[in-house]
Each structure stands twice: as structure tokens, then as C-alpha cells.
Amino acid sequence: MRDLKQLVKAYDVRGVVPDQWDETLSRAFGAAFVRVVGASAIVVGHDMRPSSPSLSRAFAEGAAAQGADVVEIGLCSTDQLYYASGSLDLPGAMFTASHNPAQYNGIKLCRAGAAPVGQDTGLSEIRELVESWTAEDGTVTVPAADATPGTLSSRETLDGYAGHLRGLVDLTAIRPLKVVVDAGNGMGGHTVPTVFAGLPLEVVDLYFELDGTFPNHEANPLDPKNLVDLQAKVRETGADIGLAFDGDADRCFVVDERGEPVSPSAITALVAEREIARARAAGEEQPTVIHNLITSWTVPEVVRELGAVPVRTRVGHSFIKQEMAVTDAIFGGEHSAHYYFRDFWRADTGMLAALHVLAALGGQDGPLSQLTDRYDRYAASGEINSTVADQQASSAAVRAAYAELPGTTVDELDGLTVAGDDWWFNLRASNTEPLLRLNVEAKDPARMAELRDAVLAIVRA
């Protein structure tokens, strides 16, 4: 039996094409997906990578061979696929490798209503089924289905997706704004023109041409070097705001009028405030907002100040979405710039977060830096990775150094989190690499730097 554990990750399928997977395996994944989720119909979309159309079609053929009717929506962002899954109430498959280099591709899977499929919610069963159909020589033989083969049909969903988002945030009355958008040659170049059409926005576009070889820079705005062009264009044009989308356009990063990055935690707090106000206007007395444990302390502080309930979770979309379902939370945010909305089937959409920021900015006269300043209460290190020989030993050494200090609290919800009166740090092991990831926050930059350096000295000893 072939081992697909390197290809099937915690939340999705992702690997190099054709070295790790190809159309044959994709066809088998389509068949296994239909069997595991018990679907009579599914929706399939893909990004702009050179390998995406053929992989997506093979998956659709594999699903149809098992008796499922397949709705192909073609080029789309990941949140556009979630819209299709939610609005059509169908399980979905999105072919993308997000921000990974061009030679990669993958599949993000969901059940009907955009409910996530991860290792604990069907992905491991899909992997095991495909492995059972794969011989030692790599030959894949999918057993014939008893059902009549399903149909393949195409459907346009971009206009419906744009209309749904614009129905959730009203930008018609905002002051005119100049917006620089860096699509990174990814799917933002496909969705932004339709979503922003007719709004009081002057859009300066960067790299809107769909090109899965990423000729200008990686479509990964989490890396500061990929924001340089956006920052320069904002300053050059005197724009009010800059937006950067990742490859599949489900994450959105923001820079202010000075070209300075705005922390995703600040965006989380800003959007949370707007969503809380909207929920209150609809009669919800004490709405809930989710945040993961490496989000700034600012987020739960703002939520509590507004009389709402913050709920802290582990890092990862499956944990956020699960907690949102349990608590009926209106909104969830991660420091990685994933933003989740109850009114978007609890799925993540950077585009909806961007619309909220534009509405907030355009609804008042001040610059974005002034608007977000009140959400900037702490100094943060950002995520720092360290290669270590023994993750557990290094974590244990840090725990021993800090756990018994007076006034500190320790928890292990996700890695090791240690907190004092006005500081905290989290140390988490990577699931796929020999790395420890450190995030530090403190009331002032000097204390943050001192704490960061002290913890790193133990980790890297």
C-alpha cells in the first residue's frame, strides 16, 4: 500500500506535481471524496496554476464515476468555492496550493455548507481509501461503482459571490478611496474587479494577470518581502490603503496610507467591533468572537470592552470553525490573516474582511493609521522559527525556566503559553518540520525584545 502521508496534510492535500501526485491520483481522490462524504453531488473549482485545470477535471471525473453529479465552477478563489458550497449546499473541492511555489498544487475539501474536512473529519479516511487502491508500483485501480455515473456541468458563481459579500457590508455611502491592490498574479485578480465594481473606489492594480508561475513575487503576503511593491505603490500614488491577497485569495493583508503593515490582530479587532455592532442591532445581546491563542491580547480586550464574549482557540481553521459552530460565534480571526464569518457559513474570506476595513475607513475622515491606532496596544515579535534537534526537550527547558516565576500562568492548549501581567509568549512545534515557532507580546518594545531574546537563547542553546 502506498504511503500518502507526505501528500495529505492536516487540513488539505498538498504536494509537488507530478513528482508527488498527478491526474491519476486526483481521479482517485475524487472517487474517495464522494464515498467518504456520501455525496450525490459536489462542486469543484480551481486556481490559476498551470496544473490546476487538468487536476480539477480528473477529480471531477473520478467523482462522477462514483455516481455524483459534479458542478464545475472553473477559475475561482477559495472563498468563492466556499460560497458555492454554502449557497448550493454541496460538498466542495478547491484545487490550489495557496501561497506555495508554482510546482505545488493541492486540494482544500469541505462538506456541504462549507464545513471543513480535515484529518479528524474525513481526510484520513479519504487518504486510507486512496492508499488501498494504489499498488506498490504506483498503479491506481478504483473499484467500479454500483451507481449510474453522474454528470458534469458548469456554473458561473462569481457574480453571486460578489453580490453576497456586498450584501453583508454596505460601501455605497463611503467617501471615495484610492486603493492599491496587489493580487500577486493570484485569484485576487479574478475576484477584485467584480467585487469592487461600481463602488466609490479608485483601484490601482498590481499583478492582476492570472499567472500560476508567480513571475513578480510569491503570493504570500505573510513574508514581508512580498509586500514591498505594494508599500511602494501606496506611497507613490498617495493611496488611502493597500490590500494584498495570497495565491488563492482567501487571506488579505492590509497596509496603511504610509505603506506600513497593519497587524492582522488589529484588523481582527476592527472587524470584530463592526460585527458586534451589527449583531447587537439585530437583537443579539452578548455575541461571541473567536480568536486563536497567538492573536494579540488587544482582540479579547476590545471584545470584552464592547460587552461581547471572546473565546480563545488553538491555531488552525478546523479549530476556529468547530468553536464557531459550538458557540454560534459571529466572527473569528487568526493572526495569519484568516477571517471567519458566521454569515459566510463560518468559512474564511479575506475579501469580506477587506470590505469591512474599507467601510470603516470610508465612513470617517481620518487616515487608516489613525483608525487602527487604538487597536495597537502591545509590541509583538511576529512568528520566529528555530530549527531544533529535539522539540520536546527545548520546550521543556523553556517551561522549566518560566513556569515557576511569581505571577506567571502556564497553559498547554496549543504548545506552551506563558503569561505575566503585561506580557506573554507561545512556543509551538511545527507539525511537519523540526521547528519551534515563537510568538512574544509585551506592553512595550523593550520588554518584548528582552523576553524574546531570553526565550530564544534557551530554545537555541
Automatic annotation (TrEMBL):
GO BP annotations, alphabetical order: carbohydrate metabolic process
The Alpha-D-phosphohexomutase C-terminal domain, residue ranges: 383-456
SUPFAM superfamilies in UniProt: Phosphoglucomutase, C-terminal domain, Phosphoglucomutase, first 3 domains
GO MF term list: intramolecular phosphotransferase activity; metal ion binding
Gene3D superfamilies associated with the record: Alpha-D-Glucose-1,6-Bisphosphate, subunit A, domain 3 (3.40.120.10), Alpha-D-phosphohexomutase, C-terminal domain (3.30.310.50)
CC cofactor: Mg(2+)
Domain of life: Bacteria
Database matches in InterPro entries: A-D-PHexomutase_a/b/a-I, A-D-PHexomutase_a/b/a-I/II/III, A-D-PHexomutase_a/b/a-II, A-D-PHexomutase_a/b/a-III, A-D-PHexomutase_C, A-D-PHexomutase_C_sf, Alpha-D-phosphohexomutase_SF
Keywords annotated in UniProt: Isomerase, Magnesium, Metal-binding, Phosphoprotein
Domain Alpha-D-phosphohexomutase alpha/beta/alpha: 6-134, 160-259, 266-378
Family: Belongs to the phosphohexose mutase family.
Record NCBIfam families: PRK09542.1
The name this protein goes by in its record: Phosphomannomutase/phosphoglucomutase
